[in-house]
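Why does residue order matter? Because the sequence determines the fold. Keep that principle in mind as you read this record.
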Amino acid sequence: MAGEFAGKVAMITGAAGNLGSAVSRRFADGGAKLILVERSADKLNALATQLGVECLIQTADLGDLAAVDAVVAAAEAHYGKIDILVHTVGGYASGQPVHAVDLQVLEHMFNLNVRPVYVTCGRVARHMIEKNVAGKIVVVLARSGLKGSTNHGAYTASKAAAQRIMESLSAEVRDKGINVNGVLPSTIDTPPNREAMPNADFSKWVTPDDLANSIAFLASDAAKALHGVSLEVYNRA
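Structure:
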């Protein structure tokens, strides 16, 4: 039986990461054709071999406008369209108090968590408008963006900014048949997080597969009435 994404083309950014690979598997299992985007071609080739489905592999700096335009052009040439974008790219860094004015960490967080959302989601949305695609865009955000915390001013601000971009894009394209939504995970159960917090109760964390299922819901027709939603996926953390 065909999966719920049969006939759809899904672009996954950060595809070879801990979350991105789970998302890629979920859409592969759902029957989608995939565009896998990551900085490392070796990681993407290994992932594509594991998935065993049709994949277009692209390496790109997703904060670079020309690089993202090249990915979109390659997708158009190969598949003709992009139906779904799942943007998983992002990162974390703690910092000093705001009064220390650590511009290096501020710029790093905004270059990692804000610029790629603005550029990648914006360019893919433009493709969907130009190709008259009733598409779905899902952005991985973070619960940390809801409230500031000590020594995390740059990180929490970057995640809040990414959320505002998602909401703004949603308002701009919803009347064009495009759904833009986000997921807000708590701590994700990944090897790096376990290493960083060895005494935590891992059973309370959200797993990559849990998040992948939530993302798949937002990318499905079942979520066609949702626009600008930040879906909280916390488990018990």
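The chain has a mean pLDDT of 96.
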